[in-house]
Amino acid sequence: xxxxxxxxxxxxxLADIVLSAAALLVLSPLLLPVALLLRLTGEGExxxxxxxxxxxxxxxxxxxxATMLKDSPNIGAGTVTVRDDPRILPVGGFLRKTKIxxxxxxLNILFxxxxxxxxxxxxxxxxxxxxxxxxxxxxxxxxxLSGLGSMVFRNEEEILHGSQDPLAFYYRVVGPYKGQxxxxxxxxxxxxxxxxxxxxxxxxxxxxxxxxxxxxxxDLPEPPPELRDxxxxx
Length: 234
Known about the structure:
Elements: H1 2-40, E1 47-53, E2 59-65, H2 92-98, H3 105-111, E3 115-117, H4 124-127, H5 132-138, E4 144-146, H6 148-152, H7 156-161, H8 166-188, H9 191-206, H10 210-216, H11 225-232
Parallel strand pairs: 3-4
Antiparallel strand pairs: 1-2
Helix pairs in contact: 1-3, 5-8
């Protein structure tokens, strides 16, 4: 079993290198103009680098296009972002909605800090909302550009916007459920699941529908009552 898991991880790493390199090449006509636009607008910053918890519990700098004020983690809701957040720069709203702001993480994947698919890398405080056992499990995986948590909470800003206390709601409800999803991924990780996540992620870019995730991955953990309607569309 352990040898099969190691072989699957080696295949996934090879796929990560090929896919990230190809994506960077294909998307360069989009990435370069976005970088120039950010340089000429807002605060003039192109990239935002933030420490996130990675494989083995070690922190690494996750790359994103700069979409918020430089001191955002120390303003307002801190590490949690809500809809119409005043810290978001003019161009940033579009980049965040389309997820273009996440594309520089293709470099993180190429360098080996991340995978195309895996648990979403979190800041230390958010990571610690997971119970200790889940933390240990997630440390065994490379964090991903996409994954179950990323897909299910694609509209996280909207979800938090509807809460009276977004920060408390995240730590009490959203964070723990994300942990359950990431645990499911660890326990069911395979090349087939890897491919399914990539395909579903691509579909969600064109047709946002969180319920699709639950229809494709039928045995995911049940959402808590506070999230059931918004996630399942019931």
